[in-house]
């Protein structure tokens, strides 16, 4: 039996942000309707917390696909030749359990994470939102800019990074690729002041976005933290916002931005308004007024990886991309 190997460059070629956003909306709606299975991820922490290995299985009924993302996360890779997130997404069909594809996880993670934030922005940001602030300057900052441009008519972009040189490099890189002006700011406050949309894409363990900075009507995509003991938003920022998540079970177990504010006694379980898939399906209401502050806390779900990798696999078949290898899966009869 053959398996299709799809590399990092091919994933970027096959998975434009707009198509990925549509696939993510469908997967999240399937989850809301009970047509997807998404267990909590398992995390293997390395000694001294130098890195971790994440294992994320998922199943989407409508795609007849199940899969598993195995990804290493080494934040100290920042500034080196190595991505902070590396691994593979394994795509299986759900009739006989046959492995169909092995897809680069770095590219899948970069694109699908931003695509889900793009879906959240379409659902929750004001229609007229055009002023974007990005905190962070790495892979997710780049992909989130692309997603925000797809979600809203962005006219102004400000970026801040804990490393000023990285913010300037981000501006140079974007200027060479996008026909939009991006300004590097000297502080997170200067970047956020008056913004309609804020994306936090840092690896910070302590808050970089403060509630007192937030303008009425702003929408926030909180991306960087995915463990209970780290957060990018302070308690006031979470408390002032109507909070939406990709999945409740993940949020109450993994979202430090939410869990730390709850531990401080400022918010309770009822502060989570619902899941993106529930808004898509019309089960709950999203933004209600132009002045309310909305917050999407992203943790990343296996079904997002499965749906993205399945789309990449289907397009690779049509376009003749990827590399076929003999792998196994055929019953061996021993005489």
How would you describe the overall organization of this protein?
- This protein is α/β, with parallel strands linked by helices.
- The protein has 2 domains: 132 residues, ornithine cyclodeaminase, domain 1, CATH 3.30.1780.10; 172 residues, 3-Layer(aba) Sandwich (Rossmann fold), CATH 3.40.50.720.
- Helices cover 35% and strands 25% of the residues.
- It is built from 11 helices and 16 strands.
- The strands form 2 sheets. Strands 1, 2, 3, 4, 5, 6, 7 and 16 form an 8-stranded mixed sheet that branches. It has an 8-stranded parallel sheet with strand order 10-9-8-11-12-15-13-14.
- Strand 9, helix 5 and strand 10 form a beta-alpha-beta unit.
- Helix 2 packs across helix 3, helix 3 runs parallel beside helix 4 and helix 3 crosses helix 11.
- The longest helix is centred in the middle third of the chain and has 20 residues.
- The chain is globular and about 70 Å long.
- The protein starts with a strand and ends in a 9-residue tail after the last strand.
- The relative contact order is 0.19.
């Amino acid at each position: 039996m053959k398996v299709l190997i799809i590399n990092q460059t091919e994933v970027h070629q096959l998975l434009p942000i707009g198509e990925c956003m549509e696939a993510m909306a469908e997967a999240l709606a399937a989850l809301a309707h009970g047509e997807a299975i998404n267990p909590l991820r398992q995390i293997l922490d390395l000694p001294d917390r130098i890195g971790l290995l994440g294992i994320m299985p998922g199943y989407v009924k409508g795609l007849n696909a199940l899969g598993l993302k195995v990804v290493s996360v080494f934040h100290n890779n920042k500034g080196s030749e190595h991505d902070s997130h590396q691994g593979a997404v394994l795509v299986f069909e759900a009739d006989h359990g046959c492995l169909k594809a092995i897809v680069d996880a770095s590219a899948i993670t970069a694109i699908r994470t931003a695509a889900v934030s793009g879906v959240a922005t379409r659902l929750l940001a004001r229609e007229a939102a055009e002023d974007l602030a990005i905190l962070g300057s790495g892979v997710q900052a780049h992909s989130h800019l692309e997603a925000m441009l797809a979600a809203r008519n962005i006219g102004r972009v400000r970026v801040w990074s804990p490393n000023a040189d990285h913010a300037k490099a981000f501006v140079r890189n974007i200027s060479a690729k996008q026909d939009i002006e991006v300004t590097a700011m000297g502080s997170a406050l200067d970047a956020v002041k008056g913004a309609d949309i804020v994306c936090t894409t840092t690896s910070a363990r302590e808050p970089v976005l403060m509630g007192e900075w937030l303008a009425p009507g702003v929408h926030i995509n909180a991306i960087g933290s995915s463990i209970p003991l780290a957060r990018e938003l302070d308690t006031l920022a979470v408390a002032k916002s109507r909070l939406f998540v990709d999945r409740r079970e993940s949020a109450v177990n993994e979202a430090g931005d939410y869990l730390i504010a709850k531990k401080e006694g400022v918010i309770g379980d009822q502060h989570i308004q619902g899941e993106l898939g529930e808004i898509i399906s019309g089960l709950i209401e999203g933004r209600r007024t132009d002045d309310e502050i909305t917050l999407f806390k992203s943790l990343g779900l296996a079904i997002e990886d499965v749906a993205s990798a399945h789309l990449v696999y289907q397009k690779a078949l049509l376009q003749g991309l990827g590399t076929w290898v003999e792998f196994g899966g055929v019953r061996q009869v021993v005489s």
